[in-house]
């Protein structure tokens, strides 16, 4: 499912069920990546739903997002 997303605008066309799948797939991708390469899981996992919601509501990249630390931005980078 993540491979189908070419830009954050694609999220705006998705149903709630599809958005929930994006969240699940993003969590799975984060877990796989950090399991193999290390990294900070906590900040990433705490931002998954929020990042999807931000991209759904706002017009990224025109609307800018500021993350507290770069570890919170991995899902944003995926989308």
The 3D shape can be described as globular
The description of the largest β-sheet is: none
Number of helices: 4
Strand content: under 5%
Give me the count of strands.
0
End-to-end Cα distance: 11 Å
Compute the CA-based radius of gyration: 12 Å
- Mean residue pLDDT: 87
Low-confidence sequence ranges: none
Order of helices and strands: HHHH
> What structural category characterises the helix and strand content?
mainly alpha
Fraction of residues in H or I helices: 40-55%
Secondary structure: elements and pairs:
Layout: H1 16-37, H2 41-45, H3 48-57, H4 74-78
Walk me through what this model shows.
The chain has 79 residues and is an all-alpha fold. It contains four helices and no strands. The longest helix has 22 residues. The N and C termini lie close together (11 Å).
TL;DR?
The chain has 79 residues and is an all-alpha fold.
What distinguishing features does this structure have?
mainly alpha, globular, 53% helix
């Amino acid at each position: 499912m993540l491979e189908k997303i070419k830009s954050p605008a694609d999220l705006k066309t998705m149903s709630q069920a599809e958005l929930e799948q994006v969240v699940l797939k993003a969590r799975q991708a984060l877990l796989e990546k950090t399991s193999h390469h290390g990294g900070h899981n906590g900040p990433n996992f705490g931002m998954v739903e929020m990042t999807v919601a931000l991209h759904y509501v706002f017009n990224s990249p025109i609307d800018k997002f500021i993350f507290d630390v770069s570890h919170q931005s991995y899902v944003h980078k995926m989308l």
